[in-house]
Structures are given as structure tokens and as C-alpha cells.
Amino acid sequence: MLNNNSIYNDIGQLLFNIAPDGAKTVIMKAELSQEGDHCKYEYDYINQSNDTNWFSGGARANTDMLNYLVKLRQYFIDNNLTNGNPIWTGCIVTVDIEKAKINIDFKYEPFIEE
Fold this sequence. Notes:
Elements: H1 4-18, E1 23-32, E2 39-47, E3 52-54, H2 59-78, E4 90-96, E5 101-107
Antiparallel strand pairs: 1-2, 1-4, 2-3, 4-5
Helix pairs in contact: 1-2
């Protein structure tokens, strides 16, 4: 049975797997299209010196992440977790590599600058 915890775990594991060496935190910003057929991404990480740098997730990671985000958004819709409001269109995912914790902040309007 699919649940939101398994999707959160998949998202966290993917970000953990693509994290650059020396990363202690990974931050991904993502904006999904309404149709769920494409997504804009920004990937950043914080290293041991607390410097923030960007990195590329890569084509495979972007495709997998798109699939996870589409599943998560559909889970919200299927389980009436929107409380009658429009569904989220993006998110900021933060993974604390050292503590193995994930946080997802959902966004309801565009926020990634072109």
C-alpha cells in the first residue's frame, strides 16, 4: 500500500544518493507543472564549513524525482489532504544528511526565479 511516508522516504533517499561528497544538508526546490509532466529544479547543499553551493541532480534523478512528486501530489488529492484548497504546485525539500531527517515545505504559487 502506498503511503506518504514511503514517498517521503524515496525522496529523501534519492537526495541522499545524489548529495555531493562533504554535504551535510541538501536542499531541493521543485515546481511541478499542473499536468505533472515536467518540473523545474534547483539543488543546493551545505558543506561541513557551512558554505552553500549548487549542484546538478542529473537527468535520472530529475526523472525519478518528478515521478515521486507526482505520486505525492496525487496522494494528497486521493486522500483529501487539501482541505478544499488548491493542491500545492511545488516544494522545498531539506535533507539533513547527518541526522537522516527530511522536511518538506509545500508551495502554492511559483517561487523559483527564471
